[in-house]
Design goal:
Number of domains: 5
Distance between the termini: 57 Å
Shape: extended
CATH superfamily of the largest domain: P-loop containing nucleotide triphosphate hydrolases
Helix content: 25-40%
CATH class of the largest domain: Alpha Beta
Strand content: 15-25%
Keywords: SH3 domain, Signal
CATH topology of the largest domain: Rossmann fold
Family: Belongs to the MAGUK family.
CATH architecture of the largest domain: 3-Layer(aba) Sandwich
Largest sheet: 6 strands, antiparallel
InterPro entries: GK/Ca_channel_bsu, Guanylate_kin-like_dom, Guanylate_kinase_CS, L27_C, L27_dom, L27_dom_sf, MAGUK, P-loop_NTPase
Mean pLDDT: 78
Pfam family, one: L27
Protein name: MAGUK p55 scaffold protein 3
Length: 543
């Protein structure tokens, strides 16, 4: 609807011109017709419509100011011109630059460019209570413009006073610099809150629109505004603050999904951190459960448990886990500290690991991409105990070894994974990966997801791609036998189970439509991996 309205408005002056030409005097409404014709024919109205059209077109181009202080530049130019003898053209330029209308346009430009158009606050009320000495009371008026205040409160257990518990980075309170942790809150918009519950006060704060006036007693020692930390965490679970009764303020909570990168801007509170989602345009921080879940408590199903563990239970709600498949609370994953990593010249390429659910056919996908560019990509040659065929070469199709040698390597943990097929042993060794990387090739390995526990090391820095076929939603989900619909349901369950158990290690999900498009997407992923930085665990880069 907004797009349609914009299109109509853009051509409004043309519509008015057409309407004017269609107006004809009518015996019964002659005066009205003449009036409308005069209005629609007014040049000023036509100019306004044209200005509106130009502004709409300009807005669609997402303009950005070249300068934030054009007025200062014009003053410098004028000063430079006045300091010497001027030609007629220079005098004309100076006259234009110094004209009041041109200065007004530049002032308007700078105001918009600097976004310096907050409303002017009205004067403070004169009828302030004299219950406290003037030196101990601070009146703060903030502009919050349909956004949260950016502060949480608590009641002091000793004094019963309502105090500021935390200031959210980037919020209205933080931007003002006038409210600090520990400040005692006495009034909100002239309403005494001494005998109100914290939830009633929070509701009062959230309902206030535009400006909000606070009467506070500053903390004995105001804390300096802390610098934002540069700690980044990869979320390993889903979190929705609206479903978490343990959070001190649901409005201030930050929802996130597993795999999101979070910048933790404050971890002063051991229970609730302040964080932002990387790539989010919202500059305000939100509350997330800290990693120290033992301090974060709340009620679930009548039991008093850790709030973060409760969040994990919520994130798993609806999953078809059996009691045996559900890990104990202590094994729930929280966050993994990460940092940006870019391969440096001369450094060994990262290992690319592909895992796939049932029906993904990742070996064929891998082989096709490698065959297209064998000088750039390579595959680890596996070991086997089966006899070599006449057309095969040792070290090309397989490394052919004896069973004794294979068993010895397995005992020494030299294999990523290995198994038996038709009474022959097969396995992929760590050394086979290193030999591909030594040739400065990107090694692509497809393994069972259990092997990720071995491969996720600083040496290999694996980039994990999860490949799964696209399953049509229109197919019935519950069928039996070996029908196509039954196969699709089995593939769907395979993908869901793999995502649940190993999804926190995945860097990229590739949904396979067909082999050609999957190859094209995989090539794009590999190319971006080599030229663009990506997030890796901090532990991989520590010496």
């Amino acid at each position: 609807m907004p797009v349609l309205i914009n299109l109509l408005l853009i051509r409004l002056h043309e519509t008015l011109a057409l309407l004017t030409s269609q107006l004809r005097p009518d015996a019964n409404h002659k005066e009205d017709m003449v009036f409308l014709k005069d209005v629609f024919s007014e040049k000023s109205l036509g100019y306004l419509m044209k200005i509106h059209e130009r502004l709409r077109l300009y807005e669609c181009q997402c303009p950005a100011p070249v300068l934030h202080s054009a007025s200062s530049l014009v003053e410098d130019v004028a000063e430079e011109l006045q300091g010497k003898s001027m030609s007629s053209n220079e005098k004309e330029l100076l006259r234009l630059l110094m004209s009041p209308h041109f200065k007004a346009v530049l002032f308007a430009h700078d105001t918009v460019a600097q976004k310096n158009f907050d409303p002017v606050l009205p004067p403070l009320p004169d009828d302030l209570e004299d219950e406290l000495e003037e030196a101990t009371v601070k009146i703060v008026r903030l502009v919050k413009n349909k956004e949260p205040l950016g502060a949480t409160i608590r009641r002091d257990e000793t004094t019963g006073a309502v105090v500021v518990a935390r200031i959210m980075r980037g919020g209205a309170a933080d931007r003002s610099g006038l409210v600090h942790v520990g400040d005692e809150l006495r009034e909100v918009n002239g309403i005494c809150i001494a005998h109100k519950r914290p939830d009633e006060i929070s509701h009062l704060l959230s309902q206030s629109q535009g400006s909000i006036t606070l009467k506070i007693i500053p903390a004995v020692k105001e804390e300096d505004r802390l610098k934002e930390s540069k700690v980044y965490m990869k979320a390993l679970f889903d979190y929705n603050p609206s479903e978490d009764k343990a959070t001190p303020c649901q409005e201030a909570g930050l929802p996130f999904k597993r795999g999101d990168i979070l910048q933790v801007v404050s971890h002063d509170d051991p229970t609730w951190w302040q964080a932002k989602r990387v790539g989010d345009s919202n500059l305000r921080a939100g509350l997330i459960p800290s990693k120290k879940d033992s301090d974060c408590e709340g009620y679930v199903n009548g039991h008093y448990i850790a709030g973060l563990r409760r969040s994990f239970r919520l994130s798993r709600k609806g999953r078809q886990d059996t009691p045996e498949e559900t890990p104990p609370e202590s094994e729930f994953l929280t966050y993994e500290e990460v940092t940006r990593y870019q391969q440096r010249p001369g450094e060994r390429p990262r290992l690319v690991v592909m895992i796939g659910s049932l029906g993904a056919r990742i070996n064929e996908l891998k082989q096709r991409v490698i065959a297209e560019n064998p000088h750039r990509y390579g595959v680890a040659v596996p070991h086997t105990t089966r006899p070599k065929k006449t057309h095969e070469k040792d070290g090309v199709e397989y490394h052919f070894v004896s069973k004794q040698a294979f068993d010895a390597d397995a005992q020494n943990n030299k294999f990523i994974e290995y198994g038996e097929y038709k009474e022959n042993l097969y396995g992929t060794s760590l050394e086979a990966i290193r030999s591909v990387q030594a040739k400065n090739k990107l090694c692509i390995a497809d393994v069972q997801p259990e092997a990720l526990k071995t491969l996720r090391t600083a040496e290999f820095k694996p980039y994990v791609i999860f490949v799964k076929p696209r399953i049509p939603e229109s197919q019935p989900r519950h069928t039996s036998g070996t029908s196509p619909a039954g196969d699709l349901e089995e593939m769907r369950q395979s993908g869901a189970q793999m995502d649940q158990q190993y999804g926190h290690w995945v860097d990229r999900v590739l949904v396979k439509e067909d082999m050609a498009s999957a190859c094209a997407e995989l090539r794009g992923i590999l190319e971006r991996l080599e030229r663009e930085p990506s997030w890796v665990p901090v532990s991989w880069l520590r010496t």
